Amino acid sequence: MILNMYSEIYTLIQEAIDTGATIEIVYSNYGGEQSIRKLSDVEYSEEYGNTHITAFCHKRHERRTFKIDRIERVTFLSGGYAEEDNSAQSAIITPMNQDIPYRFNPNKRIFNLYGEDYNY
Description:
alpha+beta; SH3 type barrels; 6 strands
């Protein structure tokens, strides 16, 4: 069930990337504080891969990076296939920090939480 909800979030994010849609997300930061963000020009993060997205955040007026497993809801504001079908317009999840499949990239440098470089 939880994996299904995360699949819906990933599906909606992929749709936003494919269509160039503007979305609104409910996002919880590392400390658990929630905020609502309006995002445009959404894409997967070049630095972190498909576990993060980068987008123009209308709240901060700059490109920001968001960890997908901290996104609790996605709603389309403009564009996207889901806008035509209101029943599929948003997905909501409440559990946090669930395992999400990660595609390992051997060309990516490895750092620990404190920024120490493991590729010598």
